[in-house]
Design brief:
The protein is α+β, with helices and mostly antiparallel strands. The chain has one domain (24-158). The chain has helices spanning 23-74, 86-89; strands at residues 106-109, 114-121, 124-131, 144-149, 155-158. A 5-stranded antiparallel β-sheet has the order 1-2-3-4-5, covered by helices on one side. Strand 4 and strand 5 form a beta hairpin. The N and C termini lie far apart (109 Å).
């Protein structure tokens, strides 16, 4: 019986140093990732705000259509959310669901992102959607205004800047966008 021993070469501790990343390379890669992240986050945030506003526009549009149908059937504007019909009111939440208090005709939409309110006077009904809070994640939400009248079809205006804050009917203003349904 013959026993063979393989002679293996022992590696010197300095051999193979070039097989990993240097500290400089790691710092450069980290800096590039940080730069790309700093560019992507504001863009992604803008997409989120736009999608929230698009959802609010949909709610306002749906409510304006329901209000116009109510006017054609009853010859008056709705006095409560229940008069708008099940299609509009099924997704509305009360402010108490979010630990807050609403006025009588205000409801919460888009999972707590917006307050929705309606106001009627004479031949015109106005609906507005505005940010739920002035601080926190809803503080930059952009407002939406819509109106419908007995003489004009519905009109919706969406603010492009989060600093253009709008809330309520603003009957005393006759400028854009509040004169859209007169």
């Amino acid at each position: 019986m013959v026993i063979e021993f393989k002679k293996e070469k022992l590696r010197h501790p300095q051999e193979g140093i070039g097989e990993g990343f240097t500290l400089i390379e790691l710092i450069v890669v980290t800096a590039i990732i940080g730069l790309l992240t700093s560019i992507a986050i504001p863009i992604f945030s803008g997409f989120i705000l736009s999608s929230r506003q698009a959802a609010a526009i949909t709610y306002v549009d749906q409510a304006l259509k329901a209000a116009k149908i109510h006017w054609m059937l009853q010859e008056r504007w709705p006095n409560s959310w229940s008069e708008f019909g099940e299609n509009v009111t099924s997704n509305l939440k009360t402010c108490s669901n979010y630990g807050s208090v609403c006025n009588g005709n205000e409801r919460v939409i888009v999972e707590g992102q917006y307050l929705l309110g309606f106001y009627s006077r004479g031949n015109e009904l106005r609906i507005s959607a505005w940010r739920f809070n002035n601080s926190g994640k809803t503080s930059k939400n952009r407002s939406v205004f819509g109106c419908v009248s007995t003489i004009k079809s519905r009109s919706i205006y969406a603010w492009k800047s989060p600093n253009s804050f709008y809330q309520g009917p603003v009957w005393h203003l006759n400028s854009h966008p509040w004169n859209r349904c007169k």
